[in-house]
Design goal:
The protein has 331 residues and is of the alpha+beta class. The protein has 2 domains: 170 residues, Ribosomal Protein S5, domain 2 (2-Layer Sandwich); 142 residues, GHMP kinase, C-terminal domain (Alpha-Beta Plaits, 2-Layer Sandwich), CATH 3.30.70. Strands 1, 4, 5, 6, 7, 8, 9 and 14 form an 8-stranded mixed β-sheet that branches. The model has no long low-confidence stretch (mean pLDDT 94). It binds ligand 2P0. Ligand 2P0 binds next to helix 4.
């Protein structure tokens, strides 16, 4: 049965990163990664199958989605239609609650919301593993936005990606950390993660193979730090992993340098705060903004310190949350 369906999916922040693919079409990673799901920052998407449409059409924040984005959306929709045994196209509408260009990727939440809403709209009843695999074919990091809490994305070994999916390893209540996003004002158009990974995976960084090996070890160390709720251990692996990813990017030829001066100032600020007793650590994605994980009792003081760093536009505050879910129509 075809029906209109709406889903919300949260964004996620990698604690150990996905940066390198073994398959660029299926978004199969060279290593596993671990992430934390954000509570309220994400994407709300409505999918309405419509036999009168000649083609799929999608509005994102009231603008028609660009052709490159539409290609990825169709890839996900076509898998669903094939399984549902229909050719009917759909009208889609999406609203991001992640402020755009604020250092949080919207593709993770966007494709997780699409996978859930579209599978429901076309009458499929998929479990979390199937949804994660479906979301991954739109954008790799979206595999991790289906589940809530602390999430492990298995790299997998099969060529078809059937064993490359994400699942929750600890729920949000296990360690209810606060998450602060220090947004760095950045005028430069950045290289997209998809393109950056392609450039980096092509083998011109002398560090790339070592980086992938480190990721395999860091996932294990990170999961233990999460299990023990040990911020010192978490800081060592999370900060080390992010810095190793950026070292790999920077040592590519041509180099990928995402940092701005305030990025470095934020790194020093977080390390100083921790040396003074604050329970916090940072990570940085393919951009200049810095994300800080923090024990609740330290969040206010840490946020104030981050906001005082020169060149910071704002500090967003959120916490660990639950995964993608169906909601009543709202957009
Ligand atoms: C991550 N990033 O693990 C890493 C850290 C960026 C840096 O996942 O090509 O937008 O769509 O699979 O998912 C961003 O990569 O790339 C990303 P595609 P995606 O969060």
């Amino acid at each position: 049965m075809l029906q209109r369906a709406t889903a919300f999916a949260p964004s996620n922040i990698a604690l150990t990163k996905y940066w390198g693919k073994r398959d660029h079409t299926l978004n199969l990673p060279l290593a596993p990664s671990l992430s934390v799901t954000l509570s309220d920052l994400g994407t709300l998407t409505v999918v309405a199958p419509n036999p009168d449409l000649d083609d799929d059409v999608m509005m994102v924040d009231d603008q028609e989605l660009d052709p490159a984005g539409m290609t990825k959306v169709r890839r996900v929709l076509n898998i669903i239609r094939q399984r549902a045994g229909t050719q009917v196209k759909a009208g889609l509408r999406s609203v991001n609650t992640v402020p755009t260009a604020r250092g949080l990727a919207s593709s993770a939440s966007a494709f997780a919301a699409l996978a859930l809403a579209a599978s429901k709209a076309y009458g499929l009843d998929l479990d979390e593993r199937e949804l994660s695999i479906l979301a991954r074919t739109g954008s790799g990091s979206a595999a991790r936005s289906v589940a809530g809490g602390y999430v492990l994305w298995h790299g997998g070994t099969t060529a078809d990606g059937s064993d490359s999916y994400a699942e929750r390893v600890f729920d949000a209540e296990h360690w209810p950390l606060k998450i602060l996003v220090a947004v760095v004002a950045d005028q430069k158009k950045k290289v997209s993660s998809t393109l950056g990974m392609k450039m980096n995976s092509a083998g011109t960084s002398p560090l790339f193979d070592a980086w992938i090996g480190q990721c395999q070890r860091d996932v294990v160390t990170c999961q233990k730090a999460l299990q023990d709720k040990n911020m010192r251990a978490l800081a060592e692996v999370v900060e080390g992993n992010a810095l190793a990813m950026h070292a790999t990017m920077m040592s590519n030829r041509p180099p990928l340098l995402y940092w701005q001066a305030p990025t470095v100032a934020l790194i020093h600020a977080v390390q100083r705060l921790r040396s003074e007793g604050a329970e916090c650590c940072f990570t940085i994605d393919a951009g200049s903004s810095v994300v800080v994980l923090c024990e609740p009792q330290d969040a206010r003081a840490v946020a104030d310190e981050l906001a005082a760093v020169a060149g910071i536009e704002e500090v967003l505050q959120t916490h660990v949350g639950s995964g993608a879910r169906l909601v009543g129509d709202a957009v």
